[in-house]
């Protein structure tokens, strides 16, 4: 297996982009990534496209071919593969690209993700997202995604004393980080009061506990580490790529408040990178709901189980804290175009490690981690990146 | 959900019929045709659950998907049946009454409807143990 590096990154703005289509978004992100890497189109060996639900959101499947064509790569017959694992589609597309380069099968690969969610009404969006859960045994019973995560939150509060204010602290922090990210959907500060007085979606989760519905795309260019410096002065090395499965239904999980797939993927990733949780400088984690970030920092080993709420409230995960979490603003403030999210996380880590993150730059960042989850925990993908191999 | 897809599960949804592995003694609801523990060595048979259980966790859903929006706000819960498995369903009771650890029993109820002329889904919901189903 070869070492792999990210040599270029690109990302569209995230938001309700009514004037831009799915294909335009992907091409915009892909082009900025290959320009960043200074790679010619003819050098690209393969494309991997993370997308959750083109079929529901834009009534379009066969997205691999669509993207290859509109990227000008169909004339070169570049192989293009759509990768789907609900909200972890992006992280999985990235991993497929990494595996293709690591194996020696391809050299230059573009891994991206895109989702166009605002071409349909909110009820259709809610229903399409509910397809990430078990349609026959959760969806039919009236389970929505906020509903499933609300049940995690309810039990976390019951078992560990986690409070509404601690949940809200996740949203407040991520909105603050979002104010410094020009690509973020929300670039405004919010207060604890804003969150806890906002509209109830599924008790105890309010609208400000939930990530938004977002259009957007992101892409990275990856290459074998040995030739990475030909393209980039600051290649960012992939130190670990791990993926794990868990039960599709929340009700089958041994502990509702622990995402087993995250625990497993993190364990494998730390082993692969020969690192421990304390060695991670900062992370982009899957905060589709505020409770999800609290569970993530516990399951990734940054804090003990049950201590995610107090840790967040204490400022440990803020930009200047011991382990900054979601410097981009996370899914909550940067936005959550589901297929793009996992790739956007790697874009953020790359910018941070290169020292190009602007006002939200974390000083002395050497090692960053990404954590992308599909559904309520059926899939988890963890990547670790570093400035050194 | 399409008519055949719902029809195929009628007995499971209406009568709380899941499966049981004779080999390891595991109980499964929703039904599984392969035992997750014994896999190919398992001996899977249908099993009718008694319908008694306890609320593991719950939420009150205020914003629902299209076919369920008429029911809001409703209590969504994970219920651990006395025989072992956990499932997702709704609990019908006063919203101030619901709590983690509450004893519940199954009841035949309407789950949702597609439109005024569309299919109506029926299935198993849960009510507090004290109340008559």
TrEMBL record, chain A:
Domain of life: Archaea
EC number(s) reported in the record: 2.3.1.9
Domain Thiolase C-terminal: 243-387
One BP term from GO: isoprenoid biosynthetic process
Enzyme class at the top of the EC tree: transferase
Stored CDD domains: SCP-x_thiolase (cd00829)
Stretches assigned to the Thiolase N-terminal domain: 4-225
Name of the molecule in the record: Acetyl-CoA acetyltransferase
UniProt source species: Candidatus Methanoperedens nitratireducens
Pfam families given in the database record: Thiolase_C_1, Thiolase_N
Any one GO molecular-function label of the UniProt entry: acetyl-CoA C-acetyltransferase activity
Keyword Acyltransferase part of the UniProt annotation: yes
Matching InterPro entries: Thiolase (IPR002155), Thiolase-like (IPR016039), Thiolase_C_2 (IPR055140), Thiolase_N (IPR020616)
Keywords: Acyltransferase, Isoprene biosynthesis, Transferase
Keyword set includes Protein transport: no
Automatic annotation (TrEMBL), chain B:
Domain called ChsH2 C-terminal OB-fold: residue spans: 50-109
InterPro entries, per database record: ChsH2_C, ChsH2_Znr, NA-bd_OB-fold, Thioester_dehydratase-like
Coiled-coil residue spans: none
Boundaries of every ChsH2 rubredoxin-like zinc ribbon domain copy: 14-39
Domain of life the protein comes from: Archaea
This protein's name: Transcriptional regulator
Source taxonomy: Archaea, Methanobacteriati, Methanobacteriota, Stenosarchaea group, Methanomicrobia
